Each structure stands twice: as structure tokens, then as C-alpha cells.
Amino acid sequence: MQITLPELSLVVLIGPSGAGKSTFARTHFRATEILSSDTCRGLVADDENDQSATGDAFEVLHYIARKRLASGRLTVIDATNVQAEARKPLLALAREFHVLPVAIVFDLPERICQERNKTRPDRDFGPHVVRRQFGEMRRSLRGLQREGFRYIFTLSSPEAVAATTIERQALWNNRRHDHGPFDIIGDIHGCYDELVDLLERLGFVRNQQSAGSRQPAAQLDAGNSMAGSPTQC
């Protein structure tokens, strides 16, 4: 599967412990783009598995996410995020900063997640925890769009996760890759003839359809290189 993300988005990884979210994030995103709830627990409690620090950890995570989105940087939230209440503040941040929210759901078989957790000494909780996370995730999957997620991608097997590629799509208003020179023309109210004269001097020529008629300036074709300094009519 190819996942196409807006280059500025809030990516929320959703899935139970052992689903492979952290590995996926490290594979496809820069380390600085990933905000992990486990890492934030370690920052506030010196122990990534200290569940008593969860509240403080998410305060830190939301604070950093806010700063990143305010500066226009793609941000990935690496946490279970299986409950709608956990996703609600993240969606609020996306709306506040006019950023598109993306959900990537890791709906792998529960058996695989349970087996993976058995091999991890830092995941010594019982199987009932993963079972509960699965139930919470699947009960809320149908409501992701109603919650406000604009893009939803679901990965249902380890093979699908491994085969996934990420493409970042430029926003429609991202013109950073355009190169000049540019001709910038200001307000033209009541100055059609002057505008046409100016465009011709800048190297534009009339096409056959508009020749001899007072067509809008947009009907003019670009002629030679649009050289020259910004000009205002």
C-alpha cells in the first residue's frame, strides 16, 4: 500500500501494544517528527513503563505537538490512541492549527501482538491489556471519520505493514519549488488598456482567440522569457 500524506499533517498511529507502530514510525519518519508516549513517560519519570506518569507524559506530548504544528511541521503521534477520548485533544490541535489529521490504523491479529509482547521484557503486563486495547480500537474504527480524521489508512497484516510506502504530497499553496523571474502586477481596476500594454512590454502576446477583442488579460499567452523587475500598473 502507498500512503499519501499531506506534507503538513498530524499523523496519529492507532493500534494495541505490539502492533508495530514504533517500528513503522522509525522506518518512515524522521526521529524528530515522532512524538512517543513512552519517550515522554521516560522524560517525566525516568521509566517509559511507569503508567502513573501517563497524565504528565501526555501533557508533554501535547505541548510539543502544539509547538511543532504552530511552526508548520509534520508531527507523528506514536501511542496506542485506541480510545476516542485519547484522540480528541489531538484532533483539537489539528483544527486549531488548520492541519489535516491522518489516522494510520494497525489492525493486526491479536495473536501476533500477544506473541510480540511476550518477547519484550518491558511489556510484562498480562494478555488482558492487549485484549482490552483491541476491543477499544475496533469499537471506534467506524467513527474515525466522524471524529474528524480526513485520511484513514488501515494495515491488517505484518506483510501489509512491511510493504507500505509513504509519499508526502505538497499542499496546493506550496509554491516553494516555483522559480522566477516573476512579473508581479497590482490592482488593475479600470486599467484594462494599460494592463494589456504592460503585458505586451513584458513579453506576453495575444492568442488568436482574443486578438482584436477586449478579452480578459488571462487570455494572453506568455511569449518570451518573463524577465524584468516587478511592475505595477
Structure description:
The two termini are 51 Å apart. Mean pLDDT is 85; it is low at 213-233. The chain is built from 9 helices and 9 strands. The longest helix is centred in the first third of the chain and has 17 residues, at 54-70. The strands form 3 sheets. Strands 3-4-2-5-6 form a 5-stranded parallel β-sheet, sandwiched between helices. Strands 1-7 form a two-stranded parallel sheet. Strands 8-9 form a two-stranded antiparallel ribbon. It has helices at 21-28, 37-45, 54-70, 84-96, 110-118, 127-140, 144-147, 158-163, 192-201; strands at residues 2-6, 9-14, 34-36, 75-78, 100-106, 151-155, 165-169, 204-206, 220-222. The protein is elongated. With 233 residues, it is α/β, with parallel strands linked by helices. Helix content is 39%, strand content 18%. The chain has 2 domains: 2-169, 3-Layer(aba) Sandwich (Rossmann fold), CATH 3.40.50.300; 180-233, no CATH class.
